[in-house]
Amino acid sequence: MAKKSFTPIPPMAELPPAEEINIKAVLDKYLSGEIDLICVLGPTASGKTRYAVQLSRQINQLVGRQVAEIISADSRQVYRGMDIGTGKDLNEYEEIPYHLMDIVDAGTKYNIFEYQRDFEKAYKDIVDRGGIPILCGGSGLYIEAATCGYSLPEVPPDPELRAELEKKSDEELIAQLASLKPLHNNTDYDTRKRLIRALEIAIYESEHPVQRSCYLPKNTYYIGTLVSREVRNAKIDARLDARLEEGMVDEIRGLIDGTHPALAPNHTPIPSEDLIYYGLEYKFVTLYLIGELSFEQMRTQLATAIHQFAKRQMTWFRGMERKGITIHWTAV
Question: How far is CA 52 from the centre of its chain?
Fold first, then answer.
């Protein structure tokens, strides 16, 4: 009998080394101008909100007054009425001011350009008042838009131009892009999709005046909240069950049927396909409410999806490190 062959299980990615963060040293860097923003990042269920609040309180204590304010970097917590499903946990903030939560209506499609604009406004407001801004979140794209020193022009997609560009080789596209803007690194063309979008933006900017953000941080100190995959997944599962008990299904039902208080005064129902667009909790609970999944199927598939999402978040953050960004990981 031939031997059975088994596909080896890939080894689990090693965790980055943990550091002990010296809060006073970080504060001194900010006060001296060496850094201009503190960012607390991490995957879902890693304790980043709790850490950011504790960090804010320590800074306030060191300074002797209320100066620390938190800016959210979460792509779904911007929506009013989407509270339990996005894990806003507003009670955790208590006396610490927070920004960029509950700023747009559920059912709309907030985008990265709007986020960078709103971040810039909140960041400048805090700094102008003598405060110390702390960015906190798990949306890697939003964090990079806020902290990586580049300004995003809101350039509309041009399907006809894209179709023309698709006919060209990568070498031709890179040469055309280089004729329109300096190429400092290869991040604009590390994938063909990114290359075509970069060229689309460069062509648009050569023909239209584009307003650029000018008040973004230049030197961010990144702190990452570190937990093992096993602990993280256990926390995800426990938190999901707690949110289901807290009324997450009823919250989403209220958005679908228009009875949620956040939809007042018109109480216009949000179409199920719009809620599915937001993914994770809103996708799977909506599928349950419209009868496409049983409760157990919803709970099981949702837990798996959140596990996978957390893994993608960590992959994004490790990718930031490969680009040269230093993240000071700390166990929480």
Answer: 15
CATH class assigned to 229-310: mainly alpha
Distance (Å, whole) CA 271 – CA 251? 14
Instruction: Name 161's Cβ contacts closer than 8 Å, sequence gap at least 6.
Output: 200, 203
Residue with tokens 């504060």: 27
For 226, left (φ over 0), alpha (ψ -120 to 50), or beta?
beta
Fold of 23-150+215-227+314-331: Rossmann fold (3.40.50)
Chain centre to alpha carbon of residue 200: 25
Q: What is the pLDDT of residues 293-302, one digit of tens each?
A: 999 999 999 9
The H-or-E segment that residue 135 falls in is strand 132-137
Return the pLDDT at 4.
41
Sheet strands side by side (includes 132-137): 98-99, 68-73, 132-137, 37-41, 220-226, 327-331
Least confident span in 149-158, 185-194, 230-239, 299-308:
185-194
Cα dihedral across residues 54, 56, 57, 58: positive or negative: positive
**CA dihedral of residues 286, 288, 293, 295 (deg, nearest 10):** 140
* Rounded distance between C-alpha atoms, residue 138 and residue 142, angstroms: 8
Determine whether 81 is exposed, middle or buried from the number of CB atoms within 10 Å of its CB (0-12, 13-18, 19+). Answer: buried
Structure tokens at 38: 């503190």
Average pLDDT over residues 134-159: 85
Q: At what angle do helices 112-128 and 140-147 cross, to 10 degrees?
A: 50
* Contact in structure between 275 and 256 (CB atoms under 8 Å): yes
Compute the average pLDDT of residues 42-48.
96
Indicate the pTM of the whole model: 0.81
Comparing 320 with 11, the larger pLDDT belongs to 320
In total, the chain counts a number of residues equal to 332
End-to-end CA distance of the chain: 52
